[in-house]
Specification:
Distance between the termini: 49 Å
Radius of gyration: 21 Å
CATH class of the largest domain: Mainly Beta
Number of helices: 4
Order of helices and strands: EHHEEEEEEHEEEEEEEEEH
Shape: elongated
CATH superfamily of the largest domain: Glucose Permease (Domain IIA)
Strand order of the largest sheet: 11-7-8-9-13-5-4-15
CATH architecture of the largest domain: Distorted Sandwich
CATH topology of the largest domain: Glucose Permease (Domain IIA)
Oligomer: single chain
Strand content: 25-35%
Largest sheet: 8 strands, antiparallel
Length: 227
């Protein structure tokens, strides 16, 4: 396990503040009571919780060009047909993965491809499990063209706690399966829009892991769809 670069400055600053508080207490408090020890313990537990939020466990990734691999840790909370209006611009299957506070919050590309579309949207901070958060909350949209020419969308959605989305996508960039795409600080959810003919490998309430869990099997475009 290691700490993601997005958390290093925050943890350094938080650790410095906790150390200063501890030194000040040593200097000014002559007699430590139970509450002084409790206060320091709470600060250390808080620091540990923040550190765990930014953890990146070492994993053996699933490399499978025939499947999309989960872009996030979390629980599958939505599988439904939806119109993707930004990049694919047609009816798709939308798969939503909700990340709680204990999940790893790095996001990865589910397959090889070329980033053809990227846009950051300012928005609200509704609870990420709210169905409309996909279009109302702060979010990024990444449009990816697969090697066979088909398109998918990966959308990072902020939630109540998430106040910053980090996305490394750049238009024209060739990306690899399980390569880091970004990080959502203190939240929330990923929406994956895929062609309707892809075969799902997950169901509602399944727990998935980024870089490991297959989401669906890629299927070629049918003659009727090409027409």
């Amino acid at each position: 396990m290691y700490i993601h670069r997005e958390g290093k400055k925050l943890l350094l600053g938080l650790g410095t503040i906790i150390m200063l508080i501890y030194l000040l207490m040593i200097f000014f408090v002559n007699h430590w009571t139970f509450f002084h020890f409790l206060f320091i313990t709470i600060l250390l537990v808080f620091f540990f919780m923040v550190m765990m939020f930014f953890r990146i466990p070492r994993r053996v990734f699933t490399n499978d060009p025939q499947r999309l691999i989960s872009p996030a840790d979390g629980t599958v909370v939505t599988i439904e047909e939806a119109l993707e209006k930004e990049y694919i611009k047609q009816e798709c299957i939308m798969i939503s993965i909700f990340m709680n506070g204990t999940d790893v919050h790095v996001n990865r590309y589910p397959c090889d491809g070329v980033v053809e579309y990227y846009k950051f949207h300012r928005g609200n901070y509704f609870v990420a499990s709210y169905p409309k958060s996909s279009v109302l909350n702060e979010r990024t949209t990444v449009g990816l063209r697969l090697p066979d020419g088909q398109k998918i969308v990966i959308r990072q959605v902020a939630g109540t706690m998430a106040r910053r989305i980090v996305c490394y996508a750049r238009q024209g960039e060739h990306v690899k399966q399980n390569q880091e795409m970004g990080f959502i600080k203190f939240g929330s959810r990923i929406d994956l829009f895929i062609p309707k003919q892809f075969i799902l490998d997950v169901d509602l309430q399944d727990v998935v892991r980024n870089g490991i869990s297959p989401i669906c099997t890629i299927q070629p475009v049918t003659d009727s769809q090409q027409a």
